[in-house]
Design goal:
Number of helices: 11
Order of helices and strands: HHEHEHEHEHEHEHEHEHEH
Helix content: 25-40%
CATH topology of the largest domain: Rossmann fold
Shape: globular
Bound molecules: N-carbamoyl-L-aspartate
Strand order of the largest sheet: 7-6-5-8-9
Strand content: 5-15%
Number of strands: 9
CATH architecture of the largest domain: 3-Layer(aba) Sandwich
């Protein structure tokens, strides 16, 4: 892994597994049961040009739990972006202020652009409808925690596969661990054809359908996603597909016992609240896992070993 995390292609499978192992050892630190100031003296720039709750807060929590500190861009409307400052200039400045930066931006490709402008490590916290690799790390952590492995699972990715960046990054990673992927979406929101052909060419087993309910008994993971309203060219198009999938506790009676339901959150109405109490629900644990995954990632990018790993 060289200095940045922009897409999952920046990590080998071995690097992913070793990072998940590091993350696991950091669980007591994330829970506040141990204090381990591995990142003392380090400063994270949280550069969020788009709304974020979990990603921004879990980066901040991760840095502070490891003894480091954080500076935030704050509200974009009160930043110099409104005066017309370019992303390049803003990031060049951050490069001088901080040791590492997390960037979220509405434009696809913005994270790579920022990485090209900076010497410090850049972590892509979501670039438009492009990628979201730090979410993938916590998703993989959650899947491995539940199933004890990543290899050979059957995973349904459901909802907005067109604009959803979480599923773009996750499908690439799961395919590399020989998972079987079921892409479930209405036709208008299907997985971009370039991603499907990339995955198929690399040997991934993929099924595309719009039928969620028939897939439920087959799968080890159901990964629900929000319809990405903000990426639609117009409201009418959004209205045609809004609320298309709604998973309820009753739907899960057909599921395997160990099947888990995930969601990167925020949810709108894709998962009924009655699923929260079921043995299958994992989305709140998944959000918590963002802290350990991002702790392990920042240690890795800053060249700091997490104690207790293989020599
Ligand atoms: C996702 C995102 O921003 O892409 N949220 C997150 O990071 N947990 C998913 C979404 O907004 O629907």
């Amino acid at each position: 892994m060289d200095g940045d995390l922009i897409t999952m292609d920046d990590m080998t499978n071995e690097e992913i597994v070793s990072l998940l192992d590091d993350a696991e050892r950091l669980l007591p630190v994330a829970h506040g049961e141990e204090f381990l100031p591995l990142l003392q003296g380090k400063l994270l720039a949280n550069m969020f040009f788009e709304p974020s709750t979990r990603t921004r807060m879990s980066f901040e929590t991760a840095m502070k739990r490891l003894g480091g500190d954080v500076v935030n861009l704050g509200d974009v409307k009160s930043s110099s972006a409104v005066k017309g400052e370019t992303l390049y200039d803003t990031m060049r400045m951050v490069d001088g202020y901080c040791d590492i930066a997390a960037l979220r931006h509405p434009r696809q490709g913005a994270a790579q652009y920022a990485a090209d402008a900076c010497d410090i490590p850049i972590m892509n916290g979501g670039d438009g409808a492009g990628h979201h690799p730090t979410q993938t790390l916590l998703d993989l952590f959650t899947i491995r925690q539940a199933h004890g492995r990543l290899d050979g699972l059957t995973v349904a990715l459901v909802g907005d596969l067109r604009y959803g960046r979480t599923v773009h990054s996750l499908s690439h990673a799961l395919a590399r661990f020989d998972c079987e992927l079921i892409f479930i979406s209405p036709n208008q929101l299907s997985m971009p054809t370039d991603i499907v052909s990339d995955l198929t060419e690399s040997g991934a087993k993929i099924t595309e359908t719009d039928d969620l309910y028939s897939a439920i008994p087959e799968v080890d993971v159901i990964y629900m996603t929000r319809i990405q309203k903000e990426r639609f060219p117009d409201d009418d198009e959004y209205e045609k597909v809004a609320g298309i999938y709604k998973l309820t506790a009753a739907d899960l009676t057909a599921a395997k016992g160990e099947m888990i339901v995930m969601h990167p959150l925020p949810r709108v109405d894709e998962i009924s609240p009655d699923v929260d109490a079921s043995r299958h629900a994992r989305y709140f644990e998944q959000a918590f896992n963002g802290v350990v995954a991002r702790m392990a990632l920042m240690c890795k990018l800053l060249g700091i070993d997490v104690p207790g790993g293989a020599a």
